[in-house]
Amino acid sequence: MKLKKVQLTPPQFLMCGFGITIMAGMLMLKLPVSTYDGISWLNALFTATSATTVTGLVTVDTGTVFTLFGEAIIMMLIQVGGLGFMTFAVLVILFLRKKITLKERLLIQEALSQTSIGGVVKLVLSLFIFSLIIELAGMVLLATVWVPEYGWMEGLHVSLFHSISAFNNAGFSLWSDNLIGYVGDPLINLVITGLFILGGIGFTVLVDVYKKPRFKKLTLHSKLMIVGTLIINTVALLFIFFAEYGNPDTLGGLSLMDKFWASYFQGVTTRTAGFNSLDIGSMEESSILFMMMLMFIGAGSGSTGSGIKLTTAIIIILTFITYLQNKSEVSVLGRTIRNNIVMRAFSITFAGFITIFFCLLGLTLTDPELPFLEVVFEVFSAFGTVGLSMGITDDLSAPGKIIIIILMFLGRVGPITLAFSLATIKPDRIRYAKEDVYTG
Amino acid sequence: MKLKKVQLTPPQFLMCGFGITIMAGMLMLKLPVSTYDGISWLNALFTATSATTVTGLVTVDTGTVFTLFGEAIIMMLIQVGGLGFMTFAVLVILFLRKKITLKERLLIQEALSQTSIGGVVKLVLSLFIFSLIIELAGMVLLATVWVPEYGWMEGLHVSLFHSISAFNNAGFSLWSDNLIGYVGDPLINLVITGLFILGGIGFTVLVDVYKKPRFKKLTLHSKLMIVGTLIINTVALLFIFFAEYGNPDTLGGLSLMDKFWASYFQGVTTRTAGFNSLDIGSMEESSILFMMMLMFIGAGSGSTGSGIKLTTAIIIILTFITYLQNKSEVSVLGRTIRNNIVMRAFSITFAGFITIFFCLLGLTLTDPELPFLEVVFEVFSAFGTVGLSMGITDDLSAPGKIIIIILMFLGRVGPITLAFSLATIKPDRIRYAKEDVYTG
Ligand SMILES: [K+]
Ligand SMILES: [K+]
């Protein structure tokens, strides 16, 4: 008897891996030992998807519904879905060595700045160890606040959970008001944001900075990510500070120092981590709209975060400027961006908008009675696997929850990965005559 | 004494022309003879902008506030802003012959499928005459319904007004419920839609079809416009038919035949004409969302309509498919689309989204108490110079109205034209080494 081997392309493999992890997670969360009073299949699927895709949207309160065992499963799903996403995928692709062209393999190696396959495996392993060390360090630092507050057992437990949740950009918290209770605590603010910024900037950037500590020597990708992160975080901080300054339900009642910490935290967390130290449902409409844009942009490529990615947004802006300047080649920091990369950036963005549009359309049919702004915010949050909510997650109808589940899944693997896993690639041999079309 | 000549680039010239027309229109609408009981400066500016940009959003009821003289001014502004937009611009550019490169001039000639400048002028004039004949024919056909209903004077007057409003995709009506009263009238439906489809498909397509009546011989642009218009109109008809079928406030109470006419009319009008035979404010949320997409896409290049244009949307979809197929050149119907055209399509779309985003952000600050869905709809409607509204136009605050005025202006001239008129073009001489950035 001979079994026919099923050959999966890397995108198909990735999708299947995610799907299997989510299903396994759902089954484990359904175990009686995971919850105090049980949980519905749909809520178990929702929680498993939210954890594996490191989103952080919740239909049940994590801290009160799940037992310590259940919380451990969620923590594991977050770890597999966040940290595992990139490293496992790379390992799998390298070990399988099927359907992967030399060009693709070289690209992966290039992405990790290594030259031999043995070196790549070693690198992935060291990244894995590095991440665990960071998570432990985060836990220790958080424990200095939470052990005195909650005692040893409970204090270490919440510190570990939040450290893993932060580094993997999951945004899950054990408190029903997330981190609102620590809005002005400098250590919590700095450690949590430090963890998710490290996790969200992308592994290639971390490796690059580790190897070449001087900015000038970094790859173009690392330079763009570092400069881009600084700029967008500063803009976000300022926007939220000024938009919410007088809002009595958010910054209004805080001291100037706490106002700063809250603006910093909410500005930085919105692109993908999804923790909140302010009440999202009480924020000004302008902040909500601005945060939707941040959630759409997201974090770095090959990171624990999602969204269209910061570099994608940068390339789109650069292309726009290039077009206005009547130039034909997109260039930045003394380097030219290949045309194929530009097409990829636009395709990713387009796929993102289309995905959001159709899911939103679906939700207007399944949940027409929910307020439109809240629904749009939820959709952007799920697509960016951010996990911020204006408070309607649990009010969604069952079909509505399924749409959000699909959206979190698509947001994490990327709609373009789905499209690739379905697309049949045709050879690009025939050349046609060029003819212009008027567009403006 | 010597006056220094101010040299304007074509985009700057276009913007100035529009601005001056709007200002002149505002002053004329402020004349006591234009209105029965006067009108505020802001509402006069709003009406003049809405007419000149062929939008059709109104803060005051056109039929009851303006005298016959005022209505004639609105009609004139519509004619100048719609029909005049392309023809005047082409004429002006050709006559000025300043700051216009040979390449640009050739492009214009190509756009109109002519080879000599004398021929272009002749062509523009014949297009002008052709348009007037179409408008007169439209008036005569509409009069067969409206003269029996309103008598000779009033009947001819409303027929002329609606014919001009339709051909120029303005969507202004003399009835406060627009065309809801004629929801099932086949002649009104066919004549009005016929007029705005002819006006909205783009002059180059009309000329092309006139010259080469066989489909195979048409330019790629004409083929895409004709096929695209058929497809998008059919999809829109079906969507609205099924989404609204059971809605008692829209299609629910109508006969099957009237349901068809209403779906056809609303599906076709939404991309830019902006008439309505259904109550927009009562439509389902899903229809509203779908209509926002239609309003964003808009009509044809060089037409009396706006939006990012149908061909722009087609090229974006084609590019996305091309990218998924791992091809490097975008091709359709046996022709390759130049890379520069692809970049232009994406830049136009990006500029559109950015414009909408910032205007929406502005409106959340100026009018936070208005419902979000209604405001988003209004913004898309103004950007696409469509003129459909869920009923909040008059409820906008003064700064809110100014934002919509700016948006109508930008929507008509195109945000990319504004950007071009501000951009300084730098030579594209330096070539950099290529370096990749990870985006997905
Ligand atoms: K998250
Ligand atoms: K219109």
From TrEMBL, chains A, B:
GO terms for cellular component: plasma membrane. Keywords: Cell membrane, Ion transport, Membrane, Potassium, Potassium transport, Transmembrane, Transmembrane helix, Transport. One of its GO terms (molecular function) is potassium:chloride symporter activity. The keyword Transport applies. Coiled coil: none annotated. The keyword Membrane applies. It is a multi-pass membrane protein. Signal peptide: none annotated. The chain crosses the membrane at residues 12-29, 72-96, 123-147, 187-210, 222-243, 288-321, 341-363, 402-425. InterPro entries: Cat_transpt, TrkH. It comes from the Bacteria. It is found in: Cell membrane. It holds the Pfam family TrkH. PANTHER family: KTR SYSTEM POTASSIUM UPTAKE PROTEIN B (PTHR32024:SF1), TRK SYSTEM POTASSIUM UPTAKE PROTEIN TRKG-RELATED (PTHR32024). This is Ktr system potassium transporter B. It comes from Jeotgalibacillus salarius.
